[in-house]
Amino acid sequence: MRTRRFSALAAALLTVVLAAGCSGSGSGSPENATGTAPAQSGPVKLTYWTWVPNMDKIVQKWNAANPDIQVTVSKQAGGDDAAAKFLTAAKAGNPPDLIQAEYQHLPSFVAAEAVADIAAQANQVRSEFSEGLWNLVTLGTDGVYGIPQDSGPMMLFYRADLFDKYGIEVPKTWDEYAEAARTVRKKDPKVYLGTFSSKDPGSFAGLAQQAGAQWWSISGDAWKVTVNDAATLKVAGYWGDLVREGVIDDMPYFTPEWNKALNDGTLLTWPSAVWAPGVLEANAPKAKGKWAVAPLPQWTAGENVSGFWGGSSTAVAAASPHKEQAVRFATWLNTDPEALELLVKEGAIYPAATKGQSVLTEAPGYFAQQKDFWQLANQVAATARGFTFGPNVNVTYDAFKNAFDKAVEAKSSFADAVNAMQEATVADMKKSGFQLAQ
Amino acid sequence: MTGTKRSGARVARAGAAPYLFLAPAVVLFVLFMALPIGYTIYLSLRRTQVSGLGLGRGSRREVFAGLDNYAAAIGDAELWLGWLRVLGYGALVLTVMLGLALIFALMLDTAHVRLARFSRIAIFLPYAVPGVAATLLWGFLYLPSLSPFQGLLELFDGEANLLGAGTVVYSMANVAVWGGVGFNMLVLYTTLRAVPREYYEAARIDGATELQIALRVKIPLLTPAIILTTVFSLIATVQVFTEPTALRPLTNTIGSTWSPLMKVYRDAFVAGDLYSAAATAIVIAGIALVLSFGFLRIVKNRAFGEG
Amino acid sequence: MSTGVLPARAAARHARPRLHPLRGAVPTAVLLLGAVYCLFPVTWVLIAATKTPGELFSTATLAIGSGLWSNIADLLAYRDGVFLLWLGNTVLYAGVGATLSAAVSALAGYALAKYRFPGRNLVFNLLIGGILVPAVVLAIPQYLLLSKAGLADTYWSVLLPQILSPYGIYLARIYAAAAVPDALVEAARIDGAGHGQIFFRVALPLMTPGLVTVFLFQFTAIWNNFLLPFIMLGDDRAFPLTVGLYTLLAAGANQPSLYNLILTGAMLSIIPLVALFLTMQRYWRTDLSRGAVKS
Q: Under CATH, what is the fold of the domain C81-258+266-287?
């Protein structure tokens, strides 16, 4: 008797487990796929994963004005972690409605069918953004996969006081930058003009963009991968030579050690993006007022180009049952003058929307002495060129870190490291079955 | 084990009772271990197939892959290099950590030790610090420009760098030793405390010194406990992940596939290839199983004296 | 290991001859060195938590800073006090999870130690085999399966997978074998007590000290777990401390890491565990192999 009862219990349990295991397969139900909200009473509730500081405050404004569309912010760890987590959530069928998507991650989101094509609604605000930024959310296709939020045109940040001390002019070309690097080492062997970070593929991609690199492009129905194009090899060779010569340090950015170098004046420049003031202020508060900004050094004297480091868009999850409302919020957030002002003031971002740039009048506190900070930034932004990101940027970036770590450690060829990135990228795409053009 | 021998007589009357007592654990095991493991095996037999640009709807399908993922995992040179690195690291951690734990436990158990309570708690304290925090903490202490040891190190070697290519494995091992020595010490110490004192008195009367007692009486008594802590530590070492992952941002010497489990993480979260990751994970669990059972088999007869 | 040795042991202690006062100096010194090694990095966190962001990277590593209170105030004010919410969540996850874990382990350990039944060894080996599977490996399929059950991103998703502890069951089995005499169980049975009554009235009280140990280990494990809640939770109001503090560290590519808040948060999050270590000292016992020692 007893054993019988036990096996009945076991069978019942198994049924429950199996039912639980199967019930999820219906999560992509038809009404979800079409994006129309199921009939329901009460306001539409949207969840939004982001890591912009003070986004709660910005969203409060929207929630107050839109009682029928209530957005809840969930602040996440930023960068690659957020992307990985979003992809996992999307695969499992319960992603948030809205997600902060860095431009380089957007293609992998699209490839995984995790974000929705919002072209019908989003094309209405196309004119608010520059052509280059808009291409980053269309990936050069007819679809639109996000609303641009911020961008990171690159500039050269430098210690004005120490440039004076060592008698260095602000370099206009990369040749001058290399010369200045040698001069600094001669004057004080403890000090470096700059450092090459093997941990920040985004920075390297931006520098390669400035030189005219195109890592991915679409030709017909196939991807063309040219991570090791001539422009990228030129940039890699330049930094590799300086690191081997010992005139440029090889300490990664954003480490405690780098923070210390920013503080004690042993690092004089940082080729970074427009968001740098916030980072400098938090990590080197004592150097306030001592840093200044100039356009990036150029490859050819007289030229005037830059690249992008960072920047993100607001994307809508493909599985969201409230896509229309989500796009309305994303559009408001990134194009409404009031929202843009909040994004700039509270979120400390450099807005992607062209009219948002007019909000930026007063230089960041850390750069108080540089009255023309935003004018300069806006000029640079207009000259920055990006490139199309491919569907497996994560693999390329991971290969960058591994290959450049080794190259820096062994003082070996940076060109080989770039070739390793190309190989890893192509091998991964081949493995998945992407069509590749020769 | 002890205490169960005479219970045999109760089999007939036990009925469903033991099963009912075990039911919560078994249900949880099925739901949160067996099912996920089964699902992992299922995933390991599949892969994604992309067509064209992979951007349009339906251009990505999940297909059956047979044993391809396993073939790739076993044929991956990087994975085997990872095993080699973990082997060196593991040998270091296991010997130093268990050696120190044994020394501390024996010292705590000596007759005239002072401040034993304080030392015991202090040595156990790192157990309260999460692995990630411990690694970041030590990371700060390793960085040449911040390290309080740097001046001392430079007396010996001007180029000293605790995160350099030749030293990073020791630095990493130190974090694991620091976090684990207290726990293992406690295991061995409690075992020692459970040993009746007259075991030692006989030796003392024969004129043995404390050192001789430790070597000839206590260590043989501790052997089963040492074997168990070794197995637990061995399994933890095969799965090493936290220390290299958390130290990686601070140094150029640790790649994203430094240990096999890091490769699993890289494949699953960075490259978005759950399927390869699943196959590699199964291989890792298999190797952990073989290693720990192999080790137990080698030492079993000697230590437990039973079949 | 019968109780008969106790008087003998006490007698032996008294009989121990008084020796040279320096005797014991070597073990004491070795242990103190070990203590210094283990305490040093913890001391460093305490010191680092007192530094303002400016001081953190510009003053000597072991110099005490001037910002402890402002750091704590900043941390408590961060996003309307979300730190306290994370602390509360962590207490909930660790407290409830470890309690249930101790209960499940007690039932299973008792059954495995005190009954002989078909499948006993199989069940034991399967349950213990769980430690062979790395947490990183389990977390993703657990997440995918819990999502299908509609439980992902809820408190349940963090609580439920952490109840089963192979280690806890292992310990509970040893404790039950050692602490619950068969004779007592037999006597209760003769008095007509049922299986449940015997467990709750006889075995459980005897096993309690061991179960406190199981509780403490699982409490620490859940308190410090990062990967599972990181994968399971999207809602930042359900985060435990580890995941919450991580959002400060990985603040995004173009945002600075809030090192002073992280260090202060790390320090504050260790304090409850340290307190637990100090107050529950006598329960931190792990005679893992007691059952294996031949007596």
A: MetI-like fold (1.10.3720)
Total tally of structural domains belonging to chain A: 2
* DSSP characters over A167-185: T-PPPSBHHHHHHHHHHHH
- Neighbouring chains to C with at least 3 Cβ pairs closer than 8 Å: A, B
Residues A143 and A204 in one domain: no
Cβ atoms of residues A374 and A275 within 8 Å: no
Cβ–Cβ under 8 Å, residues A116 and A323: yes
Encoded tokens for A337? 């003058």
CB nearest C148 (choices: A20, A79, A310): A20
Q: Render pLDDT for C151-188 as a digit per residue (tens, 0 to 9).
A: 989 999 999 999 999 889 988 998 898 889 999 999 99
pLDDT for residue A21 is more than 80: no
Asked whether the beta carbons of residue C42 and residue B127 sit closer than 8 angstroms, the reply is no
| Best residue of A86, A434, A436 to probe chain B, by most B CBs closer than 10 Å | A434
ipTM: 0.84
- The one-letter code for the residue type at B3 is G
pLDDT value of position B71: 93
Q: Name the A residues in 325-384 with CB < 8 Å from any B CB.
A: none
The pair of structure tokens assigned to C223 is 């308190």
Alpha-carbon distances, residue B69 vs A81, A395, B64, B269, C191 (angstroms): 25, 18, 10, 17, 61
Ordered DSSP codes for A127-161: GGS-HHHHHHHHTTSS----EEEEEEEEEEEEEHH
Check B182 against C38: CB less than 8 A apart: yes
Tell me whether residues A435 and B274 touch, CB distance under 8 A. Answer: no
User: Do A64 and A159 have their domain in common?
Assistant: no
Q: How far apart are CA B294 and CA B227, in angstroms?
A: 12
CATH architecture of B69-304: Orthogonal Bundle (1.10)
The minimal CB distance from A432 to the residues B15, B48, B274 is found for B48
Task: State the smallest CA–CA distance between residue B272 and chain A in angstroms.
Answer: 7
B184 vs C contacts (CB less than 8 Å): none
Question: pLDDT (tens digit, 9 = 90+) per residue, A338-364?
Answer: 999 999 888 888 999 998 888 888 888
Residue of chain A whose Cα is closest to the Cα of B269 = A84
Q: Which residues pair with B46 in a beta bridge?
A: B64
Q: Where residue C112 falls among pLDDT bands split at 50, 70, 90?
A: very high
